[in-house]
């Protein structure tokens, strides 16, 4: 893996509203579970083309949303400037996963080949269907392959290839 991809920032959410009068903000979270966004410190944000960090003083689940108090932000008007700001973390802030487990963004772009040796395409993105996760693979056509055995046979991060048991016509 190149140094560049290790240092890549990952989008984990967005500040999407105000909460209360003391400068708390509402968050939209891409993490799973959603409240995990609060466990990453600091957050990296881009303001006027410059990267800076935000620290969370406190945060919690509030009904269907997640709210946080940002360091140095203690009133509604100051907090208002952050609405719509995307929240990123550095790849180094992620926990190391057990061998054979991967974060979804690590799978994006991998070449997918079936057991007959046919290249199906590259993983465009992953989808959680509720019952299981699915690799959306784009090549000559789009394939939705469940990210579970027996369909998923092997992931080789060195060759950046995924071997699946999946018919090219399906």
Describe, in plain words, how this protein is organized in 3D.
The chain has helices at 3-6, 76-80, 104-107, and strands spanning 9-19, 24-29, 43-47, 50-54, 56-62, 65-70, 86-90, 111-114, 119-128, 133-138, 142-146, 152-156, 161-164. The strands form three sheets. Strands 11-10-9-8-13-12 form a six-stranded mixed beta sheet. Strands 5-6-2-1-7 form a five-stranded antiparallel beta sheet. The protein is built from three helices and 13 strands; from the N terminus they run αββββββαβαββββββ. It is mostly beta strands and 170 residues long. The model is unreliable at 1-6 (pLDDT under 50). Helix content is 8%, strand content 46%. It folds into two domains: 3-92, Beta Barrel (Elongation Factor Tu (Ef-tu), domain 3), CATH 2.40.30.60; 104-164, SH3 type barrels, CATH 2.30.30. The chain starts with a helix and ends in a 6-residue tail after the last strand.
Topology:
Blueprint lengths: L2 H4 L2 E11 L4 E6 L13 E5 L2 E5 L1 E7 L2 E6 L5 H5 L5 E5 L13 H4 L3 E4 L4 E10 L4 E6 L3 E5 L5 E5 L4 E4 L6
Parallel strand pairs: 8-13
Antiparallel strand pairs: 1-2, 1-7, 2-6, 3-4, 5-6, 8-9, 9-10, 10-11, 12-13
Number of helices, where a helix is a run of at least 4 consecutive DSSP H or I residues = 3
The secondary structure category is mainly beta
CATH topology of the largest domain: Elongation Factor Tu (Ef-tu), domain 3
Q: Supply the CATH class of the largest domain.
A: Mainly Beta
Distance between the termini: 32 Å
Q: Tell me the number of structural domains.
A: 2
Biggest sheet overview: 6 strands, mixed
Task: Give the C-alpha Rg.
Answer: 19 Å
- Please estimate the helix content: under 10%
CATH homologous superfamily designation of the largest domain: RimM
Strand content: over 45%
Please state the second-level CATH architecture of the largest domain.
Beta Barrel
Number of strands: 13
Q: Can you tell me the residue ranges where pLDDT is under 50 for at least 5 consecutive residues?
A: 1-6
């Amino acid at each position: 893996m190149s140094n560049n991809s290790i240092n890549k920032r990952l989008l984990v959410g967005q500040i999407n509203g105000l909460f209360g009068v003391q400068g708390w903000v509402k968050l939209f979270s891409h993490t799973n579970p959603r409240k995990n966004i609060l466990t990453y410190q600091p957050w990296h944000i881009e303001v006027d083309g410059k990267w800076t960090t935000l620290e969370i003083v406190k945060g919690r689940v509030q009904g269907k949303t997640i709210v946080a108090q940002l360091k140095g932000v203690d009133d509604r008007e100051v907090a208002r400037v952050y609405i719509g700001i995307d929240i990123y973390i550095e790849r180094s802030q992620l926990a190391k996963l057990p061998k054979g487990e991967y974060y979804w963004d690590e799978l994006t772009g991998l070449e997918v080949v079936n057991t007959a040796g046919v290249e199906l395409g590259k993983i465009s993105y992953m989808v959680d269907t509720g019952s299981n996760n699915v690799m959306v693979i784009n090549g000559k056509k789009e394939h939705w392959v469940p990210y579970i055995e027996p369909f998923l046979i092997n992931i080789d991060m060195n060759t950046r290839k995924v071997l699946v048991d999946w018919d090219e016509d399906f």
